[in-house]
Amino acid sequence: MTVRLTFLAAVLLVAGCETLSFYSQAARGQWQVLNRAEPVSEVISAPGLSEETKRQLALAQEALVFAEQHLRLDVGKRYRRYADLERTAVVWNVFAAQPLDLGGKRWCYPVAGCTSYRGFFREAAAHRYARRMVERGWETYVGAVPAYSTLGWFDDPILSTFIHWPEPDLVSLLFHELAHGRIWVKDDVSFNEGFASFVGEAGLRAWMGRRYEARVYEDYLERRKGQRQFRQFLVRAKTELTSLYARTDLNHEEKLAGKEELIAAVLACYDTHRSALGGGRFDTLMHERFNNAYLVSVGTYEDRVPAFRVLFEQSDGWEDFYRRVEALADLEVTHRERELSSLEDEKHQHTDDTRPDEVHCEAFPGHGAD
Tens of pLDDT along 310-321? Predict the structure, then answer.
Protein backbone atom coordinates (compact mmCIF):
# COMPACT_ATOMS: atom_id res chain seq x y z
CA MET A 1 0.00 0.00 0.00
CA THR A 2 2.78 2.44 0.93
CA VAL A 3 4.56 1.96 -2.40
CA ARG A 4 1.38 2.54 -4.35
CA LEU A 5 0.45 5.66 -2.42
CA THR A 6 4.02 6.90 -2.88
CA PHE A 7 3.54 6.48 -6.62
CA LEU A 8 0.41 8.63 -6.49
CA ALA A 9 2.30 11.23 -4.48
CA ALA A 10 5.02 11.32 -7.14
CA VAL A 11 2.38 11.96 -9.78
CA LEU A 12 1.10 14.91 -7.77
CA LEU A 13 4.56 16.45 -7.59
CA VAL A 14 4.96 16.59 -11.37
CA ALA A 15 1.39 17.64 -12.16
CA GLY A 16 0.25 21.04 -13.36
CA CYS A 17 -2.26 23.13 -11.39
CA GLU A 18 -5.48 21.72 -12.88
CA THR A 19 -3.95 18.25 -13.09
CA LEU A 20 -2.77 18.55 -9.49
CA SER A 21 -6.34 19.21 -8.38
CA PHE A 22 -7.58 16.22 -10.36
CA TYR A 23 -5.03 13.77 -8.98
CA SER A 24 -5.55 15.09 -5.46
CA GLN A 25 -9.26 14.29 -5.60
CA ALA A 26 -8.50 10.94 -7.24
CA ALA A 27 -6.04 9.91 -4.52
CA ARG A 28 -8.37 11.14 -1.78
CA GLY A 29 -11.38 9.43 -3.33
CA GLN A 30 -9.57 6.13 -3.77
CA TRP A 31 -8.34 6.26 -0.19
CA GLN A 32 -11.88 6.89 1.09
CA VAL A 33 -13.19 3.89 -0.82
CA LEU A 34 -10.48 1.62 0.58
CA ASN A 35 -10.89 3.04 4.08
CA ARG A 36 -14.57 2.07 4.09
CA ALA A 37 -13.90 -1.51 3.00
CA GLU A 38 -14.30 -4.34 5.51
CA PRO A 39 -13.78 -8.10 5.04
CA VAL A 40 -16.88 -9.71 3.55
CA SER A 41 -16.78 -12.46 6.18
CA GLU A 42 -17.06 -9.85 8.95
CA VAL A 43 -19.72 -7.82 7.15
CA ILE A 44 -21.95 -10.87 6.61
CA SER A 45 -21.77 -11.87 10.28
CA ALA A 46 -22.34 -8.36 11.62
CA PRO A 47 -25.77 -7.61 13.14
CA GLY A 48 -28.14 -5.32 11.29
CA LEU A 49 -27.15 -6.28 7.75
CA SER A 50 -30.14 -7.01 5.53
CA GLU A 51 -30.70 -10.58 4.39
CA GLU A 52 -30.66 -9.40 0.78
CA THR A 53 -27.20 -7.86 1.15
CA LYS A 54 -25.94 -11.04 2.84
CA ARG A 55 -27.25 -13.13 -0.06
CA GLN A 56 -25.69 -10.82 -2.64
CA LEU A 57 -22.31 -10.81 -0.90
CA ALA A 58 -22.37 -14.61 -0.67
CA LEU A 59 -23.31 -14.76 -4.35
CA ALA A 60 -20.38 -12.51 -5.25
CA GLN A 61 -17.98 -14.80 -3.38
CA GLU A 62 -19.34 -17.82 -5.28
CA ALA A 63 -18.79 -15.92 -8.53
CA LEU A 64 -15.17 -15.27 -7.58
CA VAL A 65 -14.57 -18.99 -7.00
CA PHE A 66 -16.16 -19.69 -10.39
CA ALA A 67 -13.95 -17.06 -12.02
CA GLU A 68 -10.82 -18.74 -10.67
CA GLN A 69 -11.81 -22.33 -11.35
CA HIS A 70 -13.62 -22.05 -14.67
CA LEU A 71 -12.56 -18.76 -16.29
CA ARG A 72 -8.94 -18.96 -15.14
CA LEU A 73 -9.01 -15.40 -13.81
CA ASP A 74 -6.72 -14.35 -10.99
CA VAL A 75 -8.86 -13.10 -8.12
CA GLY A 76 -6.29 -12.87 -5.32
CA LYS A 77 -7.59 -10.50 -2.65
CA ARG A 78 -9.86 -8.56 -4.97
CA TYR A 79 -13.54 -8.28 -4.01
CA ARG A 80 -12.95 -9.98 -0.67
CA ARG A 81 -13.99 -6.79 1.15
CA TYR A 82 -17.14 -4.69 1.02
CA ALA A 83 -17.47 -0.89 1.11
CA ASP A 84 -20.77 0.87 1.72
CA LEU A 85 -20.28 4.22 0.00
CA GLU A 86 -23.73 5.62 0.84
CA ARG A 87 -24.11 7.04 -2.67
CA THR A 88 -25.37 5.86 -6.05
CA ALA A 89 -22.04 5.80 -7.93
CA VAL A 90 -18.39 5.44 -7.09
CA VAL A 91 -17.17 7.93 -9.71
CA TRP A 92 -18.67 10.22 -12.34
CA ASN A 93 -17.00 10.31 -15.76
CA VAL A 94 -16.90 13.46 -17.89
CA PHE A 95 -16.88 13.02 -21.68
CA ALA A 96 -16.25 15.94 -24.03
CA ALA A 97 -16.49 16.47 -27.79
CA GLN A 98 -16.30 19.36 -30.23
CA PRO A 99 -19.59 20.41 -31.93
CA LEU A 100 -18.62 18.80 -35.26
CA ASP A 101 -16.43 15.92 -34.14
CA LEU A 102 -17.06 12.55 -32.52
CA GLY A 103 -13.43 11.74 -31.82
CA GLY A 104 -13.80 13.17 -28.34
CA LYS A 105 -11.25 14.69 -26.01
CA ARG A 106 -8.69 12.30 -24.54
CA TRP A 107 -7.01 12.51 -21.16
CA CYS A 108 -3.81 10.62 -20.36
CA TYR A 109 -2.84 9.01 -17.07
CA PRO A 110 0.47 7.53 -15.86
CA VAL A 111 -0.72 3.91 -15.50
CA ALA A 112 -3.97 3.43 -17.40
CA GLY A 113 -2.83 5.42 -20.43
CA CYS A 114 -5.15 7.66 -22.46
CA THR A 115 -8.93 7.44 -22.22
CA SER A 116 -11.95 9.34 -23.51
CA TYR A 117 -13.14 10.37 -20.05
CA ARG A 118 -12.11 12.17 -16.87
CA GLY A 119 -13.30 10.54 -13.62
CA PHE A 120 -14.29 12.31 -10.40
CA PHE A 121 -15.19 10.85 -7.01
CA ARG A 122 -17.67 13.64 -6.32
CA GLU A 123 -20.60 14.32 -8.64
CA ALA A 124 -20.47 18.06 -8.02
CA ALA A 125 -16.80 18.15 -9.02
CA ALA A 126 -17.58 16.31 -12.25
CA HIS A 127 -20.30 18.81 -13.16
CA ARG A 128 -18.04 21.78 -12.31
CA TYR A 129 -15.38 20.42 -14.61
CA ALA A 130 -17.98 19.78 -17.33
CA ARG A 131 -19.17 23.38 -17.07
CA ARG A 132 -15.61 24.63 -17.53
CA MET A 133 -15.30 22.49 -20.65
CA VAL A 134 -18.56 23.94 -22.00
CA GLU A 135 -17.16 27.44 -21.46
CA ARG A 136 -14.22 26.40 -23.65
CA GLY A 137 -16.53 25.35 -26.48
CA TRP A 138 -16.94 21.62 -25.79
CA GLU A 139 -20.12 19.58 -25.58
CA THR A 140 -20.09 17.46 -22.42
CA TYR A 141 -21.78 14.46 -20.87
CA VAL A 142 -21.46 13.29 -17.25
CA GLY A 143 -22.10 9.60 -16.62
CA ALA A 144 -22.38 7.84 -13.26
CA VAL A 145 -20.09 4.81 -12.87
CA PRO A 146 -20.96 2.05 -10.36
CA ALA A 147 -17.62 0.18 -10.58
CA TYR A 148 -14.08 0.43 -11.91
CA SER A 149 -10.84 -1.50 -11.79
CA THR A 150 -7.56 -0.21 -10.32
CA LEU A 151 -5.70 -2.72 -12.55
CA GLY A 152 -4.08 -4.46 -9.62
CA TRP A 153 -2.77 -1.34 -7.89
CA PHE A 154 -5.20 -1.96 -5.05
CA ASP A 155 -7.36 -4.86 -3.88
CA ASP A 156 -10.67 -3.61 -5.25
CA PRO A 157 -13.60 -4.09 -2.86
CA ILE A 158 -17.20 -4.95 -3.66
CA LEU A 159 -19.17 -1.70 -3.58
CA SER A 160 -22.66 -0.82 -2.41
CA THR A 161 -23.13 0.90 -5.78
CA PHE A 162 -23.56 -2.46 -7.53
CA ILE A 163 -24.02 -5.17 -4.88
CA HIS A 164 -27.83 -5.12 -5.23
CA TRP A 165 -27.82 -5.64 -8.99
CA PRO A 166 -29.68 -8.70 -10.35
CA GLU A 167 -27.55 -11.84 -10.34
CA PRO A 168 -26.63 -11.85 -14.08
CA ASP A 169 -25.56 -8.19 -14.01
CA LEU A 170 -23.58 -8.55 -10.77
CA VAL A 171 -21.78 -11.69 -11.89
CA SER A 172 -20.91 -10.41 -15.37
CA LEU A 173 -19.63 -7.14 -13.86
CA LEU A 174 -17.25 -9.02 -11.54
CA PHE A 175 -15.98 -11.13 -14.46
CA HIS A 176 -15.55 -7.96 -16.54
CA GLU A 177 -13.51 -6.15 -13.89
CA LEU A 178 -11.38 -9.22 -13.13
CA ALA A 179 -10.58 -9.48 -16.85
CA HIS A 180 -9.07 -5.98 -16.71
CA GLY A 181 -6.66 -7.29 -14.10
CA ARG A 182 -5.64 -10.13 -16.42
CA ILE A 183 -4.90 -8.11 -19.58
CA TRP A 184 -4.68 -4.35 -20.06
CA VAL A 185 -3.16 -2.48 -23.00
CA LYS A 186 -2.16 1.09 -22.30
CA ASP A 187 -3.87 3.67 -24.53
CA ASP A 188 -6.27 1.18 -26.19
CA VAL A 189 -9.68 1.60 -24.54
CA SER A 190 -11.70 -0.25 -27.21
CA PHE A 191 -9.40 -3.28 -26.99
CA ASN A 192 -9.48 -3.36 -23.19
CA GLU A 193 -13.22 -2.88 -22.89
CA GLY A 194 -14.03 -5.24 -25.76
CA PHE A 195 -11.94 -7.98 -24.17
CA ALA A 196 -13.41 -7.47 -20.69
CA SER A 197 -16.96 -7.22 -22.04
CA PHE A 198 -16.52 -10.52 -23.87
CA VAL A 199 -15.16 -12.22 -20.74
CA GLY A 200 -18.14 -10.89 -18.79
CA GLU A 201 -20.54 -12.10 -21.48
CA ALA A 202 -19.02 -15.55 -22.02
CA GLY A 203 -18.34 -16.02 -18.33
CA LEU A 204 -21.96 -15.26 -17.47
CA ARG A 205 -23.18 -17.73 -20.09
CA ALA A 206 -21.00 -20.43 -18.53
CA TRP A 207 -22.13 -19.46 -15.02
CA MET A 208 -25.82 -19.54 -15.91
CA GLY A 209 -25.39 -22.80 -17.82
CA ARG A 210 -24.01 -24.54 -14.75
CA ARG A 211 -26.63 -23.21 -12.34
CA TYR A 212 -29.88 -23.04 -14.29
CA GLU A 213 -31.86 -24.44 -17.16
CA ALA A 214 -31.15 -22.92 -20.58
CA ARG A 215 -34.41 -20.96 -20.58
CA VAL A 216 -33.25 -18.87 -17.59
CA TYR A 217 -30.36 -17.40 -19.58
CA GLU A 218 -32.61 -16.98 -22.61
CA ASP A 219 -35.12 -15.07 -20.47
CA TYR A 220 -32.30 -12.81 -19.29
CA LEU A 221 -31.28 -12.05 -22.88
CA GLU A 222 -34.89 -11.30 -23.77
CA ARG A 223 -35.17 -8.84 -20.88
CA ARG A 224 -32.08 -7.05 -22.17
CA LYS A 225 -33.42 -6.88 -25.72
CA GLY A 226 -34.61 -3.28 -25.38
CA GLN A 227 -31.21 -2.19 -24.12
CA ARG A 228 -29.45 -3.95 -27.01
CA GLN A 229 -31.78 -2.35 -29.54
CA PHE A 230 -31.22 1.06 -27.98
CA ARG A 231 -27.47 0.64 -28.28
CA GLN A 232 -27.79 -0.38 -31.96
CA PHE A 233 -29.96 2.69 -32.48
CA LEU A 234 -27.30 4.95 -30.95
CA VAL A 235 -24.52 3.37 -33.02
CA ARG A 236 -26.50 4.16 -36.17
CA ALA A 237 -26.96 7.76 -35.03
CA LYS A 238 -23.25 8.00 -34.33
CA THR A 239 -22.44 6.62 -37.78
CA GLU A 240 -24.76 9.09 -39.51
CA LEU A 241 -23.34 12.07 -37.62
CA THR A 242 -19.76 10.94 -38.25
CA SER A 243 -20.53 10.79 -41.96
CA LEU A 244 -22.04 14.27 -41.89
CA TYR A 245 -19.08 15.78 -40.01
CA ALA A 246 -16.63 14.25 -42.51
CA ARG A 247 -18.23 15.80 -45.59
CA THR A 248 -15.91 18.12 -47.48
CA ASP A 249 -18.63 19.67 -49.67
CA LEU A 250 -20.26 21.46 -46.73
CA ASN A 251 -19.03 24.51 -44.83
CA HIS A 252 -19.17 24.88 -41.04
CA GLU A 253 -22.61 26.48 -40.93
CA GLU A 254 -24.09 23.90 -43.30
CA LYS A 255 -22.75 21.07 -41.15
CA LEU A 256 -24.24 22.65 -38.02
CA ALA A 257 -27.61 22.95 -39.77
CA GLY A 258 -27.37 19.35 -40.96
CA LYS A 259 -26.48 18.23 -37.45
CA GLU A 260 -29.51 20.00 -35.98
CA GLU A 261 -31.82 18.38 -38.53
CA LEU A 262 -30.31 14.92 -38.13
CA ILE A 263 -30.55 15.04 -34.34
CA ALA A 264 -34.18 16.09 -34.64
CA ALA A 265 -34.77 13.05 -36.87
CA VAL A 266 -33.01 10.79 -34.36
CA LEU A 267 -35.19 12.07 -31.52
CA ALA A 268 -38.35 11.70 -33.60
CA CYS A 269 -37.37 8.13 -34.46
CA TYR A 270 -36.72 7.40 -30.79
CA ASP A 271 -40.13 8.75 -29.80
CA THR A 272 -41.83 6.67 -32.50
CA HIS A 273 -40.15 3.45 -31.35
CA ARG A 274 -39.94 4.30 -27.66
CA SER A 275 -41.56 1.04 -26.51
CA ALA A 276 -38.94 -1.06 -28.33
CA LEU A 277 -36.05 1.15 -27.21
CA GLY A 278 -36.24 0.61 -23.47
CA GLY A 279 -39.89 1.49 -22.90
CA GLY A 280 -39.15 5.05 -21.77
CA ARG A 281 -36.10 4.19 -19.68
CA PHE A 282 -33.91 6.51 -21.79
CA ASP A 283 -36.32 9.45 -22.22
CA THR A 284 -34.36 11.89 -20.07
CA LEU A 285 -31.07 10.95 -21.66
CA MET A 286 -32.38 11.40 -25.20
CA HIS A 287 -34.31 14.63 -24.69
CA GLU A 288 -32.03 16.40 -22.20
CA ARG A 289 -28.52 14.96 -22.55
CA PHE A 290 -28.16 13.63 -26.11
CA ASN A 291 -25.14 15.24 -27.81
CA ASN A 292 -21.74 14.45 -29.33
CA ALA A 293 -20.16 13.90 -25.91
CA TYR A 294 -22.72 11.26 -25.00
CA LEU A 295 -22.13 9.48 -28.31
CA VAL A 296 -18.39 9.40 -27.55
CA SER A 297 -19.28 7.12 -24.64
CA VAL A 298 -21.31 4.82 -26.90
CA GLY A 299 -19.69 1.80 -28.45
CA THR A 300 -16.44 1.74 -26.50
CA TYR A 301 -17.42 -1.24 -24.37
CA GLU A 302 -18.68 -3.50 -27.14
CA ASP A 303 -17.08 -2.37 -30.39
CA ARG A 304 -14.54 -5.21 -30.39
CA VAL A 305 -16.61 -7.94 -28.73
CA PRO A 306 -17.34 -9.76 -32.05
CA ALA A 307 -13.61 -10.14 -32.68
CA PHE A 308 -13.04 -11.69 -29.27
CA ARG A 309 -15.97 -14.06 -29.81
CA VAL A 310 -14.25 -15.41 -32.94
CA LEU A 311 -10.92 -15.64 -31.15
CA PHE A 312 -12.52 -17.63 -28.33
CA GLU A 313 -14.14 -20.01 -30.81
CA GLN A 314 -10.72 -20.61 -32.32
CA SER A 315 -9.13 -21.24 -28.93
CA ASP A 316 -8.71 -24.42 -26.94
CA GLY A 317 -10.17 -23.21 -23.65
CA TRP A 318 -9.67 -20.08 -21.59
CA GLU A 319 -5.91 -20.25 -21.08
CA ASP A 320 -5.32 -20.61 -24.81
CA PHE A 321 -7.72 -17.72 -25.40
CA TYR A 322 -5.78 -15.50 -23.00
CA ARG A 323 -2.51 -16.39 -24.72
CA ARG A 324 -3.99 -15.35 -28.05
CA VAL A 325 -5.29 -12.09 -26.57
CA GLU A 326 -1.87 -11.40 -25.03
CA ALA A 327 -0.30 -11.97 -28.45
CA LEU A 328 -2.64 -9.32 -29.89
CA ALA A 329 -1.84 -7.01 -27.00
CA ASP A 330 1.86 -7.22 -27.84
CA LEU A 331 1.31 -6.03 -31.41
CA GLU A 332 1.83 -2.47 -32.60
CA VAL A 333 -1.52 -0.69 -32.53
CA THR A 334 -2.19 -0.54 -36.30
CA HIS A 335 -1.26 -4.21 -36.68
CA ARG A 336 -3.53 -5.07 -33.74
CA GLU A 337 -6.40 -3.14 -35.31
CA ARG A 338 -5.96 -5.02 -38.59
CA GLU A 339 -6.01 -8.38 -36.79
CA LEU A 340 -9.16 -7.48 -34.87
CA SER A 341 -10.88 -6.22 -38.03
CA SER A 342 -9.96 -9.46 -39.78
CA LEU A 343 -11.56 -11.45 -36.96
CA GLU A 344 -14.71 -9.33 -37.19
CA ASP A 345 -14.87 -9.85 -40.96
CA GLU A 346 -14.67 -13.58 -40.39
CA LYS A 347 -17.56 -13.32 -37.93
CA HIS A 348 -19.70 -11.48 -40.48
CA GLN A 349 -18.97 -14.05 -43.18
CA HIS A 350 -20.40 -16.85 -41.05
CA THR A 351 -23.39 -15.13 -39.47
CA ASP A 352 -26.57 -13.41 -40.60
CA ASP A 353 -26.10 -9.86 -39.35
CA THR A 354 -29.30 -8.38 -40.80
CA ARG A 355 -30.71 -7.92 -37.29
CA PRO A 356 -34.44 -8.17 -38.12
CA ASP A 357 -35.35 -6.63 -34.74
CA GLU A 358 -33.32 -3.46 -35.34
CA VAL A 359 -35.30 -0.21 -35.31
CA HIS A 360 -35.49 1.62 -38.65
CA CYS A 361 -36.81 5.08 -39.53
CA GLU A 362 -37.08 6.34 -43.09
CA ALA A 363 -36.00 9.84 -42.10
CA PHE A 364 -33.02 8.63 -40.13
CA PRO A 365 -30.42 8.65 -42.95
CA GLY A 366 -31.67 11.99 -44.27
CA HIS A 367 -29.65 14.55 -42.35
CA GLY A 368 -30.99 17.43 -44.42
CA ALA A 369 -27.65 18.56 -45.83
CA ASP A 370 -28.04 16.97 -49.25
Answer: 999 999 999 999
